[in-house]
Amino acid sequence: MTCLVPRLTGPRRCIIRSLDRSLLFALRQTGARPQELRELTWKDVRPDHLLLWEHKTEGSTREPRIIHLTPCMQRFFAVVRKRSKSDHVFLNGRGKPWTTNAVRLRVMRLKDKLGLSDDVCAYLIRHAFGTNAILNGVDVVTVSELMGHASTEITTGVYVHLAEQKSHLQKAVTRAVSTPPAASRDQESERRPSSQTGEAAPPARPARRTPDTRRAAPR
C-alpha cells in the first residue's frame, strides 16, 4: 500500500508506510491507550485533538478525554479523512477495524522479525511516551493530563520512576566503561618523566669532600 502521508522535511518529518502500521505510529505520537485508537471514529477527531467521551477514567474524572495531536498527526488525520470510507479511523491491512487480538498478533510478528524480547506489547509504546516526556523535562502534571490519568499519583509512581531508573542506568554504564581515576593517574605518572609530574625534586646531595693527604712543607 502506498504512503498515505507525504514525507515532510525538517523536524516535522514523518513517514507512514502503510495504513495498518499507522496505528503503531499513532500510539507513539499520542501516548494514547491502544483501545482508544482501535475504537476511534471520525466523529471523535478534531483539527488539533481527539475528543473521547467514552474512556477508561470517565467514571472518576466525569470529563471527556482530550488527546492532543502533534503537527504530524494533524496532517495524517487530514489526509486519511479525505480518503476514508469507514467510520473507524484505523484499519488493518484488510480494511477492517482493529481488534485486540489483531493488534497482539501484529506486535508478535514484529517481535519475531526484529528479535525483540517476549514482554514487548502495544501498551509499552504508551509507557515509552510517558517516560520520554519526563526525561525531556515535561512536568508531572502536564504528563498526567496528556496521558489521561485520573491523578498524578500514577504518573509519579510509574513514569517518573522509570525515567529516574533509565537516567541512573545511563550514568552507570558510562562509569562502567571509564578508566578508574586512581589507575589513570598511576598509569600517567609511569609514562611521564619525574620532572614533568609537577612534584618537587629531591634536594641535591652535597659533594663529598676528599681529605688532603699531602704533608705540610717544613718551615
Label this structure with key terms.
219 residues; mainly alpha; hpI Integrase, Chain A; 2 domains; 2 strands; 4% strand; globular
Structural notes for this entry:
This protein is mainly α. It has helices at residues 22-30, 34-38, 58-61, 71-83, 100-114, 123-135, 140-147, 152-176, 181-191, and strands at residues 49-52, 65-68. The chain folds into two domains: 1-117, hpI Integrase, Chain A (Orthogonal Bundle), CATH 1.10.443; 122-177. 47% of the residues lie in helices and 4% in strands. It has a two-stranded antiparallel ribbon. Helix 6 crosses helix 8 (152-176) and helix 7 packs across helix 8 (152-176). Mean pLDDT is 77; it is low at 1-17.
Could you outline the blueprint of secondary structure elements for this entry?
Layout: H1 22-30, H2 34-38, E1 49-52, H3 58-61, E2 65-68, H4 71-83, H5 100-114, H6 123-135, H7 140-147, H8 152-176, H9 181-191
Helix pairs in contact: 1-6, 6-8, 7-8
Total helices: the number is: 9
**What is the name of the CATH class of the largest domain?**
Mainly Alpha
The percent of residues in helical segments reads 40-55%
Dominant shape: globular
Rg, Å, rounded: 33 Å
Number of strands: 2
